[in-house]
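Forwarding these from the shared drive since the link keeps breaking.
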Amino acid sequence: MKMATPLLASLLAVSACMTANVCDAATKAKAKPKPLPTYKTSFDCASPQASAEKLICHDAQLAQMDLELNRLYLLALTDEHSVPRPDKVEIDQQFWVDTRNQCDSGPQAKPCVIRSYAERAHQLRQGSAIARTKDPSRLTEGPVTFRCAGLNAPVAATFFMTEPGVVYLKWSKTSITLDQVPDTAGTLYRGKDVRGSYSFWQTGYETIFQAPGTGSMSCTAEPVG
């Protein structure tokens, strides 16, 4: 076997080094995560002030909820008959923003933010007839009052038509936010809290609500107006 000359050995070493560097650079390029998309929100995503705001900026569903909530808030500010009055609505909104921003990072951050938006949308729509106007661009409906067999108190439901959808349910001293899940027969929302699991299922003619400690309850929507 012929031995490589010093010059050939040097060239081979340089070639191997270059190949290794190219491969290493390619591996690093593939491993580098793609930047998350940034969505339009009611606040400046160039300088988010809290972990919750950073999450909203990069999540399509939360960004939709944010824009819709801001739309409801601006409408409520124009409603002299809102409950509470517009000056108190403004104070409450700032308090709500501070509360929303307490949803920290981690696996429970998004559910926390969703609950915050759903509850605030319910409050604004409940208190202002102007906020409930039938704007074609709206992503919320309600509150709709349901009477459920076996439940003494009426259930108020406010819907977020985002992707996926969300429903906020409130009755007596209890409230729950449920997320829409795939269902071939109707619109199904599910969720749980410390008491157990809930479901709210709707078809064109039927609404079924199930809460911890109850069976499936048939519900009827009360007329609006």
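-- next protein --
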Amino acid sequence: MAEAEARLLMLIDDEPAQCRLITALAAREGWRTVIARDSETAVAMLGTRQGMQLSAIVLDQWVPGDDACTLIAELKNRRPALPILMLTTSASPLLAVEAMRAGATDYLIKPVAPDQLLQALRAATTRENNGEELQPLTEKMPAILDFDAMIGAAPNFRTALAVAAKAARAHTPVLIEGESGTGKEMLVRAMHAASPRSKASLRFVNIGGIPANQVESVLFGHEKGAFPGAFDRHIGALQHADGATLVLDEIDRMPLAVQERFEAYLETGQVQPIGARHSFRIDVRLFAASNTPLADLVAIRQFRPELAAALAGAKVVLPALRDRSGDLPALARHFLARIGDQPGLRPLGITDGALKLLFAYDWPGNVRQLQAVLFRAAVFCDGDALTAQDFPHLSSLLGGEQQDNAMVQEGVGVMLYTPDGNLRPLDEIEADVIRLAIGHYRGRMTEVARRLGIGRSTLYRKLSDLGIESAA
């Protein structure tokens, strides 16, 4: 805890209420906070003894005395390795682009949720070698709400989608398991859109972001005076979702004491707020998401087996990105197309050299991390396509080691781009395709011609025109 206690945060803000809130939230994880009311004070503080101890900066977009992006650039110029998070009321992607180009690590939309702020601070200060390229940015682009937007052809991924599509039409609880960043929230939204309750609301509760002693009250509600501090009656999330759909994220972090009560609710369909004399029946469709397989928690007695079984009326397991790496090219091009539609950005291609680099990394943050890395690279790219040089931190993490055979194994065996990001001439690409086919089918030219969809005589003519020697 000593390391955590030593962390110092500079908050650049002139709103007393927000300063108190962020100071209190940061203190939960051992942060000490110093406050600068304007840009001049903030810049001056960097040169002090206290300023040299800073681990991160949080600034409000409307900081007095300077434009926020100008201030970010000034702070970054003076302290290049210091993570900077910007608070804003704007959801504009253009602002995100401008802030990142100025040097911001991430930005958070106000009012910021406590768990989002703490997660952003945690991520900004624990990333390996201060590699900004791997900072897991909060999702900024609008979500697409159908199964067609779930990109991937890997069998394990398509199986998960098939199970989810079938479960969406039912009324039983659905348990979605998968590592952080695999797309659980996007899948939940697609399932909701395909469900009989698509017209009703979809409510989210993040169990992991609630103090353990408050989870029961958040879910079930409480009556006034039910316990010390219960000054008003509170309606729980379950009652709020009556007739609609409730998503419990990180249900693997639900306290054992609450698990027993939640299991009873699933059996009876009735809730009883804390301190209430009577229970009442509600009708809620439940989706539960877990970063950890519940079976593993059941085995170590951290999750009730009866509740795990009750939640899994249908169970969907989303594979990690490293377990479906063949989907990387399609995912990369899909994300780049969406990124290119954002204000301040433009459509970009991606070279085979860049894809090769992406294949070599194991993506612990999964699809969410891939999108964040592509977004950051796109912000700073000057060419028409991302090249390996646009991912310097990936290159440094891999230490120059790239899996030379990975792209061929994943079906990306023909280079489409030159190293500078331009497309290769068509005759060169065609020649490579024919060479690849000859090698793949071991010189059986009849099979090569059939697989390429051309006649044998046409194949031999192309061999002559392109100067390719047959291995037949």
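Confidence is low (pLDDT under 50) at residues 1-5, 128-138, 403-412. Residues 177 and 317 are 5 Å apart (CA to CA).

- D.
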